[in-house]
Structure formats: C-alpha cells, structure tokens
Write a structure and sequence with these properties.
297 residues, alpha+beta, six-stranded antiparallel β-sheet, 35% strand, ATP-binding, nucleotide-binding
C-alpha cells in the first residue's frame, strides 16, 4: 500500500483549498493508498515536514500550494526514495505544468494513484539554494523582489510595479562562462537559467529544455524597447523566444555569472538578494516525481 503525505500551505498560491481533504477522501482508493494531511504553520515548515517524512519511508509527499511550496517540499526530497507529488494551487504552477500534472484538483489527486514515476534533474545556486524550474536575474527578478516587499498583493500590484520599474530600469552587463568553455558577455534585460522549459503559466523561457538531460538551458535577452515587447511576449508563450534577434542562448552543466554588484535573483519565483558572482549548476537525476503517463518530460 502506498503511503502518501499531503502538505497543505493554507496561505500560499491562489487556489481554494477548503475542499481538498474531502476530494482526497473521495478519490484515493483506501485499498491502494494510506494518507495523512499536514498543514504548514510557518515559513520553512513544509521543508521540515518533507525531510521527516522521507526518513520515515513515506512513498509520496504532495506539495499543495504554489511554486514556493513545491520548491520547499522538493528540496527535502532530493536523493531520497520518496517521490514528489504536486497538487497545484498557485498562479504559475511551473513544475506541475512541465510534468503534465492536471490543474484541476480532482484530476491531480487521481494522478497520484495512476501516474508514472520518473527521476528528474534539479539546479543549485552557489551550492546552496535549489531550484527545479528556473532561476534568473534581471528585470523580472527586480520586479519579484519589489513585489515581495509590497504591502498589497495580487496581479494589479505586480503590474503596477512592473510598469513603474520599466521606465527606470537600466540593464546591467553580465559575463557568463560555461563549463563548455563558451562565454557570453553582454548587457541583458533578463537572464534565465532553465532546468524546465517554462517559468509557469506556459511562459516558455527555455523552450527546448529537458528536465532529464543533465543540461542547463541559459537564455539571455538583450535590452528591449517598447516596440520589442509585443513580439517577445508572443514568442514567450508560443515557445519560440529563442528565435528572437534579441535572444542569446547556451547549454551547459555549470555556468558562472559575473556582474558589477549584488542584486535580486529569483528561483522558482521566489526572490532573494544574491551576491554579484554566482555559480549555477545542474544535478542530474536527483528527484523522484509523479508525472502524467502521456507527458513527455
């Protein structure tokens, strides 16, 4: 019998969670699965619970929340025998989308019994912070940092910050040195380091990324004008942003980033103030996940 722990962050993400315990009870077959539900009580609690459950031999720990909750849970499950399950309740749901996890809660719960189990890669920033979708620096990291400090939440606040910062944002010069010997040195609006293909919301910043190839897909977007925005936005969601003349890409297992000063960075959507010099690497085959059986990852 499969042992499953659901970790619910009651305040993360955007989806309603009140009906989830009832859905779990209705959908999971008691002959196939024994489950428990634990609610987080503070920042970092999901990470602690996941680590404990992995040592107890739980088969699947399910992150119920947004991308931040998924990152917390997954970070404690790397190189264990416990698989990550996702019940997506966030605004982006980047890893869930890449793995083919349904956004409908009932279907996502059913997948825990009927899905496939695969082993995927993950990334590290300066040997410390782990990411599973992407991390990056530049304009989007700055907006995420400002948004996290804002007194109000929601899409309107995010858009207001993005518009305000867009008028004053000055692109920095970055130097990227890959373990392949390839280098990129340029001013950049955004630099993204992709393990998975997308940020979330089907915004494909690294459209050719595979989450199982042990390779980091780096996308650098040069400074853009107001006239560049519509086509770049279209290509981001069409999966063709690498075709834009403002975009430069490289593939590697490890890359160092040099810039003039420290600044904001995001990993799986979570912002933090990062040092000026960074090393980003991919660790191959470190995390078990539950995926859709028909989804190529």
């Amino acid at each position: 019998m499969k042992k499953i722990t659901f970790i619910i962050n009651p305040i993360s993400g955007t989806g309603k969670k009140d009906q989830i315990p009832k859905l779990i009870d209705q959908i999971l077959d008691p002959q196939k699965a024994k489950y428990e539900i634990i609610y987080t009580e503070y920042a970092g609690h999901a990470k602690e619970i996941s680590a404990k459950k992995a040592t107890e031999g739980v088969d699947v720990v399910v992150a119920v929340g947004g991308d931040g909750t998924v990152n917390e849970v997954a970070s404690s499950l790397v190189h264990t025998h416990t698989a990550l399950g996702i019940l997506p309740c966030g605004s982006g749901n980047g890893l869930a989308r890449h793995l083919g996890v349904p956004l409908r809660q009932a279907e996502a719960i059913a997948l825990l019994q009927n899905g496939d189990e695969h082993i995927i890669d993950y990334g590290k920033i300066n040997k410390e912070r782990l990411f599973f979708c992407s991390c990056g620096v530049g304009f989007d990291a700055l907006v995420s940092w400002k948004f996290a400090q804002a007194s109000t939440r929601g899409l309107l606040t995010y858009c207001q910050i993005a518009i305000k910062e867009n008028f004053s944002y000055k692109a920095e010069t970055y130097k990227l040195t890959a373990d392949t010997g390839e280098t990129l040195e340029d001013k950049a609006f955004v630099i993204a380091f992709g393990n998975a293909a997308q940020y979330g919301n089907d915004a494909f910043i690294a459209p050719h990324a595979s989450i199982q190839d042990g390779v980091l897909d780096v996308t650098l977007i040069k400074p853009i004008s107001l006239y560049d925005t519509p086509i770049l936005s279209y290509q981001l969601f069409a999966g063709t942003i690498d075709k834009n003349k403002k975009t430069r890409t490289l593939k590697c297992r490890e890359v160092t980033l040099e810039r003039e000063k420290e600044g904001p960075m995001h990993y799986d959507g979570e912002p933090f103030m990062a040092p000026k010099d960074l090393t980003i690497e991919i660790i191959k085959g470190g995390l078990k996940v539950i995926t859709h059986p028909k989804k190529k990852i």
